[in-house]
Specification:
The chain has 262 residues and is of the alpha/beta class. Helix content is 34%, strand content 24%. It has helices at residues 3-9, 59-67, 106-110, 112-116, 120-123, 125-133, 149-161, 179-196, 207-213, 244-256, and strands spanning 17-28, 31-43, 48-52, 74-79, 82-83, 91-94, 167-171, 199-203, 216-220, 227-232. Helix 6 (125-133) crosses helix 7 (149-161). The relative contact order is 0.19.
Length: 262
């Protein structure tokens, strides 16, 4: 049984995502700036996908399309076979910056999604569950200014989890953290994914991070982004950086990214 199937059986939150011949461009000063070029990708329920590629190539744009925040110029994105036409709590995007409201406590920040949907009275119990999952239950009444960078990012993840997402989209969530905090949160994220059973797509510039977390790594070209390579990572968790198979895959991925590695 592969890792994705195990994860999907951990819960009923996973969904399938199909990206079909998606191209996208932005209009800037009256000119078209292409960012995605005919992207085809199928993500299975419970799978953890990492997206690698040059900075600014279009990976984050693809996450926004998957979240329903924008519509593609061409092609379609499908959730369980149905077109994605608008944002939905089943698909949650977590950004690099936690973007917590500084005047609200951690608990109140986590509650924002339920409040916006009018579900606070009926689903408020999820707040304590989410805080427990990310190990912030003792900081429920703290304010963002009282949190470390890692704790603030955990609060942002709790804010996503409280909506019971089926697809968690992560846009370099650990990019601004120190190395030790980053290592700890990488492990916490894989544990969370395996326990909760959602589908996950992670944008990262860190090849090692991709190999430690994902069970498939997708490599994009420079802008406009197109898929140039994919590798499967069939290794058990937790993974070691010095694992010979991962070292080999790291060299392969760096090569596909145009980085010569001795």
């Amino acid at each position: 049984m592969n890792i994705a199937v195990k994860a999907s059986k951990a819960g009923r939150r996973a969904l399938a995502l199909d990206i079909r011949q998606v191209s996208h461009h932005f209009e800037i000063s009256g000119e078209k700036l292409p960012v995605l070029d005919n992207v085809d990708l199928s993500v299975q329920p419970g799978e953890f996908i990492a997206l690698l590629g040059p900075s600014g190539c279009g990976k984050s744009t693809l996450l926004r399309l998957a979240a329903g925040l924008e519509q593609p110029t061409e092609g379609a994105l499908l959730e369980e076979g149905e077109p994605i036409t608008h944002p939905d709590p089943s698909r949650i995007l977590v950004f690099q910056d936690p973007t917590l409201f500084p005047w609200r406590t951690v608990r109140d920040n986590v509650a924002t999604g339920l409040e916006a949907r009018g579900l606070l009275k009926t689903h408020g119990y999820r707040i304590d569950e989410a805080l427990r999952i990310v190990k912030l239950e003792k900081f429920a009444d703290a304010y963002p200014s009282q949190l470390s960078g890692g704790m603030a990012q955990r609060a942002a993840i709790a804010r996503a989890l409280v909506n019971d997402p089926h697809l968690l989209l992560l846009d370099e969530p650990f990019g601004k953290l120190d190395s030790l905090t980053r290592l700890g949160l990488q492990q916490e994220l894989t544990n969370l994914w395996r326990e909760e059973g959602f589908t996950a797509i992670l944008v990262t510039h860190d090849v090692e991070e991709a190999l430690l977390l994902a069970n498939r790594v997708v490599v994009f070209s420079d802008r406009p982004a197109r898929i140039v390579h994919q590798v499967r990572v069939d290794k058990p968790y937790p993974r070691r950086r010095d694992d010979e198979d991962l070292v080999h895959l790291r060299q392969e991925l760096l090569s596909k990214l145009g980085i010569v590695h001795d």
